Amino acid sequence: MSEVREFCVKMRASRCGEHVSGAERIVDERLVPRAVAALAERALSHEKGSPDFINIKVEEPGEMVRLKALAVATNEVSTAVEGRARAAQLLAEAGVGRANEIMALFRESYSMRGAMLVDADTLERLEPDRERGVRATRMDAADTAVCGVFRGKNHFAEAVVLATKVANAPGIVGEVCVSDDPGYVTGYVAAKSMGYQRITVMKESGDPCGGRIFLYRGPREDVEKCIRFLERQSVIVEGAPSAPNAPGEVRLDGIARELDAIEQAGLSRSCRALRSPTGPTARVDVDGAMRDVVVLASNDYLDLARDPRVTGAAAAAAHAWGAGSGGSRLTTGTQPPHEALERRIAAFKGEEAAILYATGYMANVGVVTALAGKGDVVFSDELNHASIIDGCRLSGADVVVYRHGDMDELARRLAAARACRRRVVVSDGVFSMDGDILDLPRFLAVCRANDAFSVVDEAHATGVVGRTGRGLVEHFGCGHPDVTVGTLSKALGSEGGFACGAEIIVKYLRNRSRPFVFSTAPGAPAVASGEAALAVLEAEPWRVAALRENVAFFLGELAGHDVAARSESAIVSVIVGDERRAVKAAEALLREGFLVSAIRYPTVARGAARLRVAVMSAHTKEQLAAAAAAIARCGM
Ligand code: PMP
Description:
Blueprint lengths: L5 E10 L2 E11 L3 H13 L8 E7 L4 E5 L3 E4 L4 H14 L5 H7 L10 E4 L19 E3 H5 L8 H13 L4 E7 L8 E5 L3 E5 L11 E6 L6 H10 L1 E5 L8 H18 L16 E6 L2 E7 L12 H14 L14 H14 L3 E5 L2 H12 L5 E5 L4 H10 L2 E5 L4 H10 L6 E6 L11 H10 L3 E5 L14 H5 L6 E5 L9 E5 L1 H10 L1 H4 L6 H16 L2 H19 L10 E7 L1 H13 L2 E2 L1 E3 L9 E6 L6 H14 L2
Parallel strand pairs: 4-12, 5-10, 6-11, 7-12, 14-23, 16-17, 16-18, 18-19, 19-20
Antiparallel strand pairs: 1-2, 1-3, 8-9, 8-11, 9-10, 13-14, 15-21, 20-21, 22-25, 24-25
Helix pairs in contact: 2-3, 8-17, 9-17, 10-11, 12-13, 18-20, 19-20
């Protein structure tokens, strides 16, 4: 196991020599840059004003002690006077006799940079440098050490960590503290015997004075040992609670931990800036610089997104009909481009009618939730797209997930659910992460034999599968599913989703499909460009043939490099397995000039990460050959 070192990152900020802010973290080495950035940000945004000096020190913490956080109790009071009286009472209960005098001494600690160290019985001052005081440093909460996201100040958690360290210092019998943050009036007294006693008001709001007193009992010769522990001993505090009085910060704790886990697992995602239209090449951000790379990650398979006929139609429609539709299709959102596109899609797919949605995602959710509800059963292929999975979940129906492409299992499970009200079977036509095709004739036979609705998502089939790109029905020469779902956002180079089938089903969807009823209709520019793209596809079926030829060529090139891959569509998956390796391979490919997606959990199963290549009709053979060679170099 490789050793991950820990570092103590300390920040002190001042203005004209006056302390402004100070904080520290103990984190593993991978998180040091982020801890530095977070502490710098904290120094620069302190309520006390902008510092003119920020000192950030990063050092190895040396041997570390792990301590259990003091138990926390809260004392609700309404005024500062009441709070101070409560503090004195608690100290007295902890066996510190001269509590009132200590509370009076407390005012003197305001001007000190560190804490006052006082003999609990004689009240003699013990700190060697009275101006500086004693500083308790080198400590952090255990979960901050693994938590990759650093937020703003969390007074409470930080205070518990500090109080725990102080209470465990040799000779310390108590501590009193009020923050110097003008907006933070809560203070505490603490000791091993009483735990951490929060007192909700210890000073007036807006008061910039704060300080702390450590109470010592023991021989003078051991004072040095106590100070050494406070100032030099690195401490990790386990079980420090989150702030009870800062709800925002508590909420973010869980978020930060989850984000950290995502990152550690190699599953973190972020957006990459694209500075050109997508085409077979595009200008993208590579390590901070804009570079032209070969794009093997776009679903714009037929290179229609930037076709002048398609973009021209969008521009003309914007001028004629406006940028947005202004309402749902059932209110103001049905304009001539919507009706024209629905007619054209229905004709292209050989169906009676079609219905548009704002996205393909919404089309799947809308169809599944309309067809199936409570008491019904949806049968879903285990590799179906997330939008189908979400539709199943939202429907409230029972969901049966069958093994990928296993029509025998589907038939068995359908037969076993015969008593149910409605049975709906839904499958990707082209599976989006493997690029394989549903066996539509068998699928339809099984559905019909069991009197189940059949729904097929042709998001990656339209414009790709079948001689003229009409999809699986054309490819197999078989009958139609009850509902075919599709999107304009892939081979049609635009955006928007659709479903088509018999008029009665489409009419039902117009009435029952919530994403259709309750979401604004896609705008005329998207709709008109989708129609223009469909017109180009109908007029230029050679694009589909060119795409198929490119896929075959690319698979041949990969095979020539001994890279295993297969595809029945435009999607070619090269399985890598490990998530981090897949990401590294995609990064290496990008540096070589090829934009390829690393697909990881949860899009695919854990340990089934892959490079997903999307081939376009417009890629040149040279680009594809070079990409295959680069994948062989970087991906395996
Ligand atoms: N179905 C499948 C199989 C898909 O891959 C996608 C897009 N990733 C969708 C549906 C959703 O389509 P859209 O991007 O138009 O929302």
